[in-house]
Amino acid sequence: MISVRDAIEITLANTPRQKPVEADFTRCIGTVLAEDVLSDMDMPPFNRSMMDGYALASDDALLAAAKLQVVGFIPAGSNPKFKLQPGQAAKIMTGAPLPEGADAVREVEKVRLLDQGRVVEILEPVKPGLNVVPKGAEVKAGEAVLTAGTYIQAPIIGLLAATGKVKVKIYKPPEVAILATGDELVDPHIKPMPGQIRNSNSFTLQALCSRLGLKSRILGVAKDDKNALRFKIVEGLKYDVLLMTGGVSMGDLDLVQDVLKELGGHFYYQKVAIKPGKPTVFGKVGEKLVFALPGNPVSSATVFEVIVRPALRKMMGYPVYQNPIVTAVLTEYFANHSQRENYHPAVCWYEDGQFFCRPLRTRGSGDIVSFARSNSYLICPIDKKEIYENEPVQVMLREDFYLT
Ligand code: AMP
Ligand code: MG
User: Fold this and answer.
1) Which neighbouring-strand residues pair with 89?
2) What is the pTM of this model?
3) What spacing in Å lies between the alpha carbon of 35 and ligand 2's midpoint?
4) Would you say residue 217 has pLDDT above 90?
5) How much is the mean pLDDT over the chain?
6) C-beta 277 within 6 A of ligand 1
7) What are the residue ranges spanned by the domains of the chain?
8) CATH no. of 4-17+173-316
9) For residue 86, what are the CA distances in angstroms to 15, 56, 100, 101, 145?
10) Closest C-alpha residue for ligand 1 atom 6
Protein backbone atom coordinates (compact mmCIF):
# COMPACT_ATOMS: atom_id res chain seq x y z
CA MET A 1 0.00 0.00 0.00
CA ILE A 2 1.35 3.43 -0.92
CA SER A 3 0.65 6.85 0.54
CA VAL A 4 -1.74 9.29 -1.06
CA ARG A 5 1.14 11.61 -1.87
CA ASP A 6 3.06 8.82 -3.62
CA ALA A 7 -0.05 7.73 -5.49
CA ILE A 8 -0.53 11.25 -6.84
CA GLU A 9 3.15 11.56 -7.74
CA ILE A 10 3.34 8.18 -9.46
CA THR A 11 0.13 8.89 -11.32
CA LEU A 12 1.32 12.26 -12.57
CA ALA A 13 4.73 10.89 -13.50
CA ASN A 14 3.06 8.33 -15.75
CA THR A 15 0.41 10.60 -17.21
CA PRO A 16 1.54 12.41 -20.34
CA ARG A 17 0.16 15.71 -21.49
CA GLN A 18 -2.14 15.40 -24.50
CA LYS A 19 -1.07 16.41 -28.01
CA PRO A 20 -1.99 19.86 -29.32
CA VAL A 21 -4.92 20.23 -31.69
CA GLU A 22 -6.27 23.22 -33.53
CA ALA A 23 -9.68 24.42 -32.43
CA ASP A 24 -12.05 27.26 -33.16
CA PHE A 25 -11.45 29.92 -30.50
CA THR A 26 -15.10 29.94 -29.45
CA ARG A 27 -14.76 26.33 -28.29
CA CYS A 28 -11.64 26.75 -26.19
CA ILE A 29 -13.07 27.83 -22.84
CA GLY A 30 -11.59 25.73 -20.02
CA THR A 31 -8.78 24.30 -22.15
CA VAL A 32 -5.09 25.23 -22.19
CA LEU A 33 -3.13 27.05 -24.87
CA ALA A 34 -0.49 24.98 -26.63
CA GLU A 35 1.11 27.95 -28.43
CA ASP A 36 2.08 31.56 -27.83
CA VAL A 37 -0.39 34.02 -29.27
CA LEU A 38 1.12 37.12 -30.87
CA SER A 39 -0.83 40.24 -31.57
CA ASP A 40 -1.04 40.96 -35.29
CA MET A 41 -1.35 44.68 -34.61
CA ASP A 42 -0.80 47.41 -32.07
CA MET A 43 -3.47 47.56 -29.38
CA PRO A 44 -5.05 49.96 -29.32
CA PRO A 45 -4.42 50.39 -33.05
CA PHE A 46 -4.64 54.19 -32.74
CA ASN A 47 -4.54 56.83 -29.99
CA ARG A 48 -7.93 56.02 -28.48
CA SER A 49 -10.22 58.35 -26.61
CA MET A 50 -11.45 56.89 -23.30
CA MET A 51 -14.25 59.45 -23.00
CA ASP A 52 -16.94 61.33 -24.83
CA GLY A 53 -15.52 64.84 -24.92
CA TYR A 54 -13.26 67.19 -26.85
CA ALA A 55 -9.94 66.23 -28.39
CA LEU A 56 -7.39 68.99 -28.10
CA ALA A 57 -3.72 69.81 -27.78
CA SER A 58 -2.93 69.99 -24.06
CA ASP A 59 -0.71 72.97 -24.78
CA ASP A 60 -3.89 74.91 -25.56
CA ALA A 61 -5.56 74.07 -22.24
CA LEU A 62 -2.84 73.89 -19.59
CA LEU A 63 -4.83 76.55 -17.76
CA ALA A 64 -8.54 76.49 -17.06
CA ALA A 65 -11.12 78.37 -19.13
CA ALA A 66 -9.32 77.99 -22.46
CA LYS A 67 -11.69 78.69 -25.34
CA LEU A 68 -11.17 76.57 -28.44
CA GLN A 69 -12.82 76.56 -31.82
CA VAL A 70 -14.76 73.32 -32.53
CA VAL A 71 -13.70 72.12 -35.97
CA GLY A 72 -14.92 68.54 -36.24
CA PHE A 73 -16.81 65.56 -34.91
CA ILE A 74 -15.13 62.14 -34.53
CA PRO A 75 -17.43 59.21 -33.75
CA ALA A 76 -16.04 55.72 -32.97
CA GLY A 77 -15.28 53.93 -36.21
CA SER A 78 -14.26 57.06 -38.10
CA ASN A 79 -10.75 57.88 -39.22
CA PRO A 80 -10.17 61.64 -38.90
CA LYS A 81 -8.21 63.06 -41.82
CA PHE A 82 -7.83 66.60 -40.55
CA LYS A 83 -5.13 68.02 -38.29
CA LEU A 84 -5.97 70.22 -35.31
CA GLN A 85 -4.37 73.64 -35.48
CA PRO A 86 -3.48 75.61 -32.33
CA GLY A 87 -6.65 76.92 -30.73
CA GLN A 88 -8.83 74.16 -32.17
CA ALA A 89 -10.69 71.16 -30.69
CA ALA A 90 -12.85 68.36 -32.10
CA LYS A 91 -15.80 66.67 -30.49
CA ILE A 92 -14.85 63.02 -30.00
CA MET A 93 -16.68 59.88 -28.80
CA THR A 94 -15.38 57.05 -26.62
CA GLY A 95 -13.30 54.59 -28.63
CA ALA A 96 -12.61 57.02 -31.48
CA PRO A 97 -9.10 57.86 -32.79
CA LEU A 98 -7.60 61.19 -31.86
CA PRO A 99 -6.91 63.47 -34.80
CA GLU A 100 -3.40 64.59 -35.59
CA GLY A 101 -2.42 67.53 -33.39
CA ALA A 102 -4.44 66.32 -30.38
CA ASP A 103 -2.88 64.63 -27.35
CA ALA A 104 -5.71 64.73 -24.79
CA VAL A 105 -9.45 64.65 -24.33
CA ARG A 106 -11.49 66.76 -21.95
CA GLU A 107 -14.72 64.93 -21.09
CA VAL A 108 -18.08 66.58 -21.94
CA GLU A 109 -18.91 67.00 -18.26
CA LYS A 110 -16.02 69.46 -17.89
CA VAL A 111 -16.68 71.82 -20.79
CA ARG A 112 -19.22 74.46 -21.70
CA LEU A 113 -20.32 75.24 -25.22
CA LEU A 114 -20.44 78.85 -26.37
CA ASP A 115 -21.44 80.59 -29.57
CA GLN A 116 -24.01 77.92 -30.53
CA GLY A 117 -21.50 75.13 -30.19
CA ARG A 118 -18.82 76.70 -32.34
CA VAL A 119 -16.60 77.32 -29.33
CA VAL A 120 -15.85 75.02 -26.41
CA GLU A 121 -14.71 76.38 -23.09
CA ILE A 122 -12.47 73.91 -21.25
CA LEU A 123 -13.41 74.32 -17.59
CA GLU A 124 -10.53 72.40 -16.02
CA PRO A 125 -6.87 72.32 -17.06
CA VAL A 126 -5.65 69.47 -19.22
CA LYS A 127 -2.42 67.49 -18.97
CA PRO A 128 -0.84 65.70 -21.96
CA GLY A 129 -2.34 62.23 -22.47
CA LEU A 130 -5.46 62.91 -20.42
CA ASN A 131 -8.19 60.33 -21.25
CA VAL A 132 -6.16 58.84 -24.07
CA VAL A 133 -4.75 55.33 -24.45
CA PRO A 134 -1.76 55.73 -26.82
CA LYS A 135 -1.43 53.48 -29.86
CA GLY A 136 0.28 50.20 -28.87
CA ALA A 137 0.14 50.92 -25.12
CA GLU A 138 -1.59 47.60 -24.36
CA VAL A 139 0.53 45.54 -26.72
CA LYS A 140 2.67 46.15 -29.79
CA ALA A 141 2.29 44.27 -33.06
CA GLY A 142 4.29 41.02 -32.90
CA GLU A 143 4.40 40.89 -29.11
CA ALA A 144 2.97 37.90 -27.24
CA VAL A 145 -0.38 38.57 -25.60
CA LEU A 146 -0.62 34.99 -24.30
CA THR A 147 1.90 32.24 -23.73
CA ALA A 148 1.63 28.47 -24.16
CA GLY A 149 0.38 26.78 -21.01
CA THR A 150 -2.15 29.47 -20.17
CA TYR A 151 -5.52 28.28 -18.92
CA ILE A 152 -8.22 29.76 -21.13
CA GLN A 153 -10.76 31.59 -19.03
CA ALA A 154 -13.55 33.77 -20.38
CA PRO A 155 -11.58 37.04 -20.79
CA ILE A 156 -9.04 35.13 -22.87
CA ILE A 157 -11.75 34.16 -25.34
CA GLY A 158 -12.34 37.89 -25.74
CA LEU A 159 -8.63 38.56 -26.17
CA LEU A 160 -8.43 35.86 -28.85
CA ALA A 161 -11.32 37.57 -30.62
CA ALA A 162 -9.66 40.99 -30.26
CA THR A 163 -6.39 39.74 -31.74
CA GLY A 164 -8.12 37.90 -34.58
CA LYS A 165 -6.81 34.55 -33.38
CA VAL A 166 -9.75 32.48 -34.58
CA LYS A 167 -7.89 29.14 -34.78
CA VAL A 168 -6.03 28.23 -31.64
CA LYS A 169 -3.72 25.36 -30.70
CA ILE A 170 -4.85 23.81 -27.44
CA TYR A 171 -4.01 20.58 -25.66
CA LYS A 172 -6.63 18.09 -26.79
CA PRO A 173 -8.93 17.29 -23.89
CA PRO A 174 -8.80 13.53 -23.27
CA GLU A 175 -11.86 11.44 -24.01
CA VAL A 176 -12.92 9.31 -21.10
CA ALA A 177 -14.75 5.97 -21.02
CA ILE A 178 -16.68 5.07 -17.90
CA LEU A 179 -17.38 1.46 -17.01
CA ALA A 180 -19.25 0.22 -13.96
CA THR A 181 -18.91 -3.40 -12.91
CA GLY A 182 -21.12 -5.52 -10.70
CA ASP A 183 -23.85 -8.16 -11.03
CA GLU A 184 -26.03 -6.21 -8.64
CA LEU A 185 -26.20 -3.02 -10.70
CA VAL A 186 -29.23 -1.80 -12.62
CA ASP A 187 -29.82 1.39 -14.58
CA PRO A 188 -31.20 4.42 -12.73
CA HIS A 189 -34.65 4.27 -14.37
CA ILE A 190 -35.19 0.72 -13.10
CA LYS A 191 -36.63 -0.13 -9.69
CA PRO A 192 -34.10 -2.54 -8.18
CA MET A 193 -35.20 -6.09 -7.34
CA PRO A 194 -34.15 -7.52 -4.00
CA GLY A 195 -30.36 -7.55 -3.83
CA GLN A 196 -29.91 -5.09 -6.64
CA ILE A 197 -28.82 -1.47 -6.46
CA ARG A 198 -28.81 1.31 -8.98
CA ASN A 199 -25.63 2.23 -10.79
CA SER A 200 -24.83 5.72 -9.56
CA ASN A 201 -21.05 5.78 -9.99
CA SER A 202 -21.11 6.07 -13.77
CA PHE A 203 -23.20 9.20 -13.54
CA THR A 204 -21.19 10.83 -10.77
CA LEU A 205 -18.02 10.25 -12.77
CA GLN A 206 -19.57 11.53 -15.95
CA ALA A 207 -20.73 14.67 -14.14
CA LEU A 208 -17.26 15.18 -12.69
CA CYS A 209 -15.73 14.84 -16.15
CA SER A 210 -18.22 17.17 -17.69
CA ARG A 211 -17.44 19.82 -15.04
CA LEU A 212 -13.81 19.51 -16.15
CA GLY A 213 -14.91 20.15 -19.70
CA LEU A 214 -14.31 16.56 -20.76
CA LYS A 215 -16.42 14.41 -23.01
CA SER A 216 -17.06 11.00 -21.55
CA ARG A 217 -18.80 7.89 -22.72
CA ILE A 218 -20.71 5.65 -20.34
CA LEU A 219 -20.14 2.07 -21.44
CA GLY A 220 -22.85 0.67 -19.22
CA VAL A 221 -22.38 -2.09 -16.69
CA ALA A 222 -20.16 -5.14 -17.02
CA LYS A 223 -21.20 -8.27 -15.14
CA ASP A 224 -18.74 -9.87 -12.73
CA ASP A 225 -17.67 -12.29 -15.40
CA LYS A 226 -14.34 -12.32 -17.20
CA ASN A 227 -15.75 -12.45 -20.70
CA ALA A 228 -18.23 -9.65 -20.07
CA LEU A 229 -15.51 -7.57 -18.46
CA ARG A 230 -13.02 -8.21 -21.24
CA PHE A 231 -15.53 -7.20 -23.90
CA LYS A 232 -16.33 -3.89 -22.21
CA ILE A 233 -12.74 -3.11 -21.22
CA VAL A 234 -11.58 -3.59 -24.81
CA GLU A 235 -14.24 -1.09 -25.83
CA GLY A 236 -13.07 1.31 -23.10
CA LEU A 237 -9.45 1.10 -24.24
CA LYS A 238 -10.40 2.95 -27.43
CA TYR A 239 -10.56 6.11 -25.32
CA ASP A 240 -7.68 8.08 -23.80
CA VAL A 241 -8.67 7.18 -20.26
CA LEU A 242 -10.74 4.31 -18.90
CA LEU A 243 -12.42 4.90 -15.55
CA MET A 244 -13.82 1.76 -13.98
CA THR A 245 -15.60 1.23 -10.69
CA GLY A 246 -16.09 -1.89 -8.62
CA GLY A 247 -14.54 -5.31 -8.75
CA VAL A 248 -11.11 -4.31 -7.48
CA SER A 249 -11.23 -5.39 -3.84
CA MET A 250 -10.63 -8.82 -2.32
CA GLY A 251 -14.01 -10.40 -3.12
CA ASP A 252 -14.36 -13.69 -5.00
CA LEU A 253 -15.83 -11.85 -7.97
CA ASP A 254 -13.37 -8.99 -8.06
CA LEU A 255 -11.93 -9.82 -11.45
CA VAL A 256 -10.98 -6.46 -12.89
CA GLN A 257 -7.24 -6.74 -12.27
CA ASP A 258 -7.15 -10.28 -13.70
CA VAL A 259 -8.78 -9.17 -16.91
CA LEU A 260 -6.62 -6.06 -17.23
CA LYS A 261 -3.55 -8.23 -16.76
CA GLU A 262 -4.72 -10.69 -19.41
CA LEU A 263 -5.07 -7.73 -21.77
CA GLY A 264 -1.41 -6.82 -21.18
CA GLY A 265 -2.06 -4.29 -18.46
CA HIS A 266 0.67 -2.97 -16.19
CA PHE A 267 -0.14 -1.64 -12.72
CA TYR A 268 1.69 1.18 -10.97
CA TYR A 269 -0.16 0.56 -7.71
CA GLN A 270 -3.13 -1.45 -6.53
CA LYS A 271 -3.73 -0.09 -3.04
CA VAL A 272 -3.56 3.42 -1.65
CA ALA A 273 -3.58 4.45 2.01
CA ILE A 274 -6.62 6.65 1.56
CA LYS A 275 -9.95 6.44 3.29
CA PRO A 276 -12.27 5.91 1.59
CA GLY A 277 -10.78 4.28 -1.48
CA LYS A 278 -8.07 1.80 -0.49
CA PRO A 279 -8.52 -0.63 -3.40
CA THR A 280 -7.54 1.88 -6.07
CA VAL A 281 -5.70 0.65 -9.12
CA PHE A 282 -3.80 2.76 -11.60
CA GLY A 283 -2.24 1.21 -14.64
CA LYS A 284 -1.86 1.25 -18.37
CA VAL A 285 -2.82 -1.07 -21.16
CA GLY A 286 -0.54 0.02 -23.98
CA GLU A 287 -0.65 3.80 -23.91
CA LYS A 288 -4.12 3.96 -22.41
CA LEU A 289 -4.57 5.05 -18.82
CA VAL A 290 -6.80 2.89 -16.65
CA PHE A 291 -8.11 3.87 -13.24
CA ALA A 292 -9.99 1.06 -11.55
CA LEU A 293 -11.72 2.65 -8.59
CA PRO A 294 -13.51 1.01 -5.70
CA GLY A 295 -17.22 0.38 -6.14
CA ASN A 296 -18.50 2.29 -3.17
CA PRO A 297 -19.89 5.58 -4.46
CA VAL A 298 -18.14 7.82 -1.95
CA SER A 299 -14.85 6.02 -2.49
CA SER A 300 -14.86 6.31 -6.26
CA ALA A 301 -15.84 9.99 -6.20
CA THR A 302 -13.22 10.76 -3.56
CA VAL A 303 -10.42 8.99 -5.40
CA PHE A 304 -11.47 10.81 -8.55
CA GLU A 305 -11.06 14.10 -6.71
CA VAL A 306 -7.73 13.31 -5.08
CA ILE A 307 -5.95 11.26 -7.75
CA VAL A 308 -7.80 11.13 -11.06
CA ARG A 309 -8.62 14.81 -11.41
CA PRO A 310 -4.98 15.94 -11.14
CA ALA A 311 -4.08 13.41 -13.83
CA LEU A 312 -6.82 14.64 -16.14
CA ARG A 313 -5.75 18.21 -15.53
CA LYS A 314 -2.18 17.30 -16.43
CA MET A 315 -3.38 15.67 -19.65
CA MET A 316 -5.28 18.86 -20.47
CA GLY A 317 -2.10 20.88 -19.96
CA TYR A 318 -3.32 22.73 -16.87
CA PRO A 319 -0.71 24.80 -15.05
CA VAL A 320 -2.13 23.59 -11.72
CA TYR A 321 -3.30 20.04 -11.02
CA GLN A 322 -4.53 19.95 -7.44
CA ASN A 323 -7.71 21.24 -5.89
CA PRO A 324 -7.19 24.07 -3.44
CA ILE A 325 -6.50 22.98 0.14
CA VAL A 326 -7.29 25.63 2.74
CA THR A 327 -6.88 25.90 6.48
CA ALA A 328 -10.26 26.03 8.19
CA VAL A 329 -11.62 26.13 11.73
CA LEU A 330 -13.28 22.87 12.69
CA THR A 331 -16.77 23.53 14.05
CA GLU A 332 -17.38 20.06 15.56
CA TYR A 333 -15.29 17.42 17.27
CA PHE A 334 -14.03 14.77 14.83
CA ALA A 335 -12.93 11.27 15.78
CA ASN A 336 -10.70 9.59 13.24
CA HIS A 337 -11.01 5.80 13.21
CA SER A 338 -8.94 5.32 10.10
CA GLN A 339 -5.46 3.88 9.65
CA ARG A 340 -5.24 5.73 6.34
CA GLU A 341 -5.22 9.38 5.28
CA ASN A 342 -8.86 10.28 5.73
CA TYR A 343 -10.79 12.40 3.24
CA HIS A 344 -13.97 12.91 5.16
CA PRO A 345 -17.00 14.54 3.49
CA ALA A 346 -17.50 18.00 4.94
CA VAL A 347 -19.27 21.29 4.50
CA CYS A 348 -16.88 24.21 4.25
CA TRP A 349 -17.73 27.89 4.11
CA TYR A 350 -15.99 31.25 4.21
CA GLU A 351 -17.13 33.86 6.65
CA ASP A 352 -15.55 37.01 8.10
CA GLY A 353 -12.16 36.31 6.61
CA GLN A 354 -11.83 32.63 7.46
CA PHE A 355 -12.88 29.17 6.39
CA PHE A 356 -14.96 26.93 8.61
CA CYS A 357 -15.40 23.18 8.24
CA ARG A 358 -18.15 20.92 9.56
CA PRO A 359 -17.51 17.21 9.09
CA LEU A 360 -20.66 15.33 8.02
CA ARG A 361 -22.01 12.32 9.85
CA THR A 362 -21.88 9.43 7.46
CA ARG A 363 -22.66 5.72 7.39
CA GLY A 364 -19.49 5.01 5.49
CA SER A 365 -18.32 4.93 1.92
CA GLY A 366 -21.67 3.71 0.61
CA ASP A 367 -23.50 6.68 2.11
CA ILE A 368 -24.21 8.71 -0.97
CA VAL A 369 -27.00 10.58 0.85
CA SER A 370 -24.68 12.26 3.31
CA PHE A 371 -21.95 12.60 0.68
CA ALA A 372 -24.28 14.55 -1.58
CA ARG A 373 -24.51 17.26 1.09
CA SER A 374 -20.76 17.81 1.17
CA ASN A 375 -18.79 20.40 -0.76
CA SER A 376 -15.30 19.55 0.47
CA TYR A 377 -13.13 17.02 2.32
CA LEU A 378 -11.74 17.33 5.78
CA ILE A 379 -8.25 15.85 5.43
CA CYS A 380 -7.29 14.01 8.58
CA PRO A 381 -3.69 12.72 8.76
CA ILE A 382 -3.07 9.05 9.65
CA ASP A 383 -1.59 9.78 13.07
CA LYS A 384 -4.32 12.16 14.20
CA LYS A 385 -6.98 10.28 16.18
CA GLU A 386 -9.09 13.21 17.35
CA ILE A 387 -9.59 16.79 16.28
CA TYR A 388 -11.32 19.18 18.65
CA GLU A 389 -13.76 21.95 17.92
CA ASN A 390 -11.96 25.19 16.94
CA GLU A 391 -8.76 23.40 15.93
CA PRO A 392 -7.33 24.34 12.52
CA VAL A 393 -7.76 21.63 9.88
CA GLN A 394 -6.83 21.14 6.24
CA VAL A 395 -9.79 21.08 3.86
CA MET A 396 -9.78 20.19 0.18
CA LEU A 397 -12.34 22.28 -1.67
CA ARG A 398 -14.32 20.88 -4.54
CA GLU A 399 -14.97 22.83 -7.70
CA ASP A 400 -18.49 23.97 -6.82
CA PHE A 401 -17.67 24.68 -3.20
CA TYR A 402 -18.51 28.38 -3.34
CA LEU A 403 -21.93 27.73 -4.88
CA THR A 404 -23.14 25.30 -2.22
P1 AMP B 1 -17.12 -3.59 -5.13
O2 AMP B 1 -15.99 -2.63 -5.14
O3 AMP B 1 -17.47 -4.12 -6.46
O4 AMP B 1 -16.93 -4.66 -4.09
O5 AMP B 1 -18.38 -2.76 -4.64
C6 AMP B 1 -18.41 -2.16 -3.37
C7 AMP B 1 -19.77 -1.60 -3.07
O8 AMP B 1 -20.10 -0.56 -3.98
C9 AMP B 1 -20.90 -2.59 -3.17
O10 AMP B 1 -21.84 -2.31 -2.15
C11 AMP B 1 -21.50 -2.29 -4.52
O12 AMP B 1 -22.85 -2.67 -4.65
C13 AMP B 1 -21.34 -0.81 -4.61
N14 AMP B 1 -21.24 -0.40 -6.01
C15 AMP B 1 -20.41 -0.95 -6.93
N16 AMP B 1 -20.56 -0.35 -8.11
C17 AMP B 1 -21.48 0.61 -7.95
C18 AMP B 1 -22.07 1.56 -8.82
N19 AMP B 1 -21.69 1.63 -10.11
N20 AMP B 1 -22.99 2.40 -8.33
C21 AMP B 1 -23.34 2.33 -7.03
N22 AMP B 1 -22.83 1.46 -6.17
C23 AMP B 1 -21.91 0.60 -6.60
MG1 MG C 1 -18.60 -5.58 -7.23
Assistant:
1) 56, 70
2) 0.94
3) 44
4) yes
5) 97
6) no
7) 4-17+173-316, 20-43+138-171, 48-133, 325-403
8) 3.40.980.10
9) 67, 9, 11, 8, 38
10) 295
